[in-house]
Amino acid sequence: MLTPAEVVDEYYLEVRCKLLEIAAIMDRYDRSVQRGDGEALGDDPRLKQCRESLAVLNSPQEEPNRAEQIALVFSHPVPA
Amino acid sequence: MYIVQPHYHAIARTAQDYERMAMSGVVAVAEPAFWAGFDRDYPETFLDYFKQISEFEPTRAAMYGIRHFSWVAVNPKEGENVALTEAVLEKMPEFFDNPNVLGVGEIGLHKSTANECKTFEMQVDMALKHNQLILIHTPHLDDKVIGTTRILEILENFDCDRSRVWIDHVEEHTVKMVLDKGYWAGMTLYPLTKMTGERAADILEMYGWERMLVNSSADWGPSDPFTLQECVLECKRRKFTEQQVLDIFHNNPCRFLSQNPKWDIKPIRIETIEEGATVN
To answer: Average pLDDT over chain A, rounded to whole?
Structure first.
């Protein structure tokens, strides 16, 4: 397994690129709304899931399970 | 589809890349001189390298029906060595007479040191004295804003036709400063780590494509010449018309590079053919 420093060395550029990619997609959506190309999808559950996931990314974690939490954000709830 | 790869380091790529590019519609590539992955010690090594990219590579590309052009320069990283750069520059003008050499590039900055700035200025001066096109590399990652700003400051000291200068590797945070000054701006696409085809399509949507070039990363590092075709596909996904795509990926490189008359590939316009009409 990798040391903390090795993780950062190995994945820093990849994380940088992926964060930029997410930012660019969110900008793409906002510009489309600004252009009036169609109605804004303010209540679309997919956008809500994206916002929830970003909150998970940016929150302090007691356990390193952000990926699991985000996978659950994008999951249908299990029927009772 | 007709595509020009305006920034392609062929010596680091395989014949199979040429073959696949030809099959995907690439009609021409232009190869700037760049860093070999290590700092060279002898000016003669550069001269042999210039000979390789201006004489041998065109023959390799021709086997696949692709036109090959090149640029000569001491790249920004090795530009740190002023004495070496001066020695290379003594011989560099001989290559301007080669029928495939388009200009001086890629020059520019890497860490924006005093030596890099000095050798950058020397090469801009040489290019202007010999009426050559100029291709400028801007630093990657966290050095990009500082380096691009410094390059623009240095260019202010030269009386140059900005439409003959292409500043490459722009991203969201540097594209506007380059276009606002009247230079051509290039975007270089990488499989991961730097600019992607999706973000390049965003920039094309935001700024248009007048004085814009798109090129793939194609060198000895993590790169893929087909990131360019991915961007073509992304533009089509965004509802760019066939003519617009042709303008961006074929005609714009032709417009910039044909400022050197050695580049004789013309822009193309798509027309429909009426039923029964004769095609000449």
So the answer is: 93
Q: Which of B236, B147, B150, B222 is nearest to B192 (CA)?
A: B222
Q: Is B3-257 a domain of CATH 3.20.20.140?
A: yes
Under a CB-based contact definition with an 8 Å cutoff, are residues B137 and B75 in contact? Answer: yes
C-alpha triplet B197, B201, B203: angle, nearest 5°: 115
Partners of residue B101 on adjacent β-strands: B70
Neighbouring C-beta atoms of residue A43, cutoff 10 Å: 7
Of B223, B228, B219, B221, the C-alpha closest to B253 is: B228
Q: What does the block give as tokens for B275?
A: 């039923």
Which residue does chain A place closest to B189, by CA atoms?
Answer: A17
What residue spans define the domains of chain B?
3-257
User: Which ipTM did the prediction report?
Assistant: 0.89
Q: Do A31 and B205 touch (CB under 8 A)?
A: yes
Average pLDDT along chain B: 96
